[in-house]
Amino acid sequence: MEYPKQHPIGIYLKIWALLFILSGLSYSVDYFHFEGYLRWALIIIFMMLKAGLIVAFFMHMVWERVALIYAILVPPLLLLTLVGIGVLEGDYTFLTRNVFFGS
After folding, report:
1. Given a cut of 70, is residue 4 above it in pLDDT?
2. DSSP codes joined into one string, the chain
3. Burial class of 102 by CB neighbour count within 10 A (0 to 12, 13 to 18, 19+)
4. Per-residue pLDDT tens over the stretch 54-88
5. Which of 2, 37, 40, 101 has the maximal Cβ count within 10 Å?
6. How far apart are CA 84 and CA 73, in angstroms?
């Protein structure tokens, strides 16, 4: 009976440390009082990096086949693309209504 290969615990400890550092950077955005789009961009970047590391290593996606990775990652990316298109369309509709119907 062959057991599945075990991944070294060092990888998980390094990822945990990296998640800890990214969380510290995320909290430092508020500590240093960043404002506006820079604040939100940094928070979202750190959030996406942490989520990517969690999915990649703790959900073992790094060691999966490419087809499974595509099956998990492509639908949310397509959904985000469609949401982005909807946001652009909403801005255009709001602008058009302001032009023709006044403020």
Report:
1. no
2. -PPPPPPPHHHHHHHHHHHHHHHHHHHHHHHTT--HHHHHHHHHHHHHHHHHHIIIIIT-GGGS-HHHHHHHHHHHHHHHHHHHHHHHHHHHHHHHHHHHH--
3. exposed
4. 988 888 888 888 888 888 889 989 999 999 999 99
5. 40
6. 17
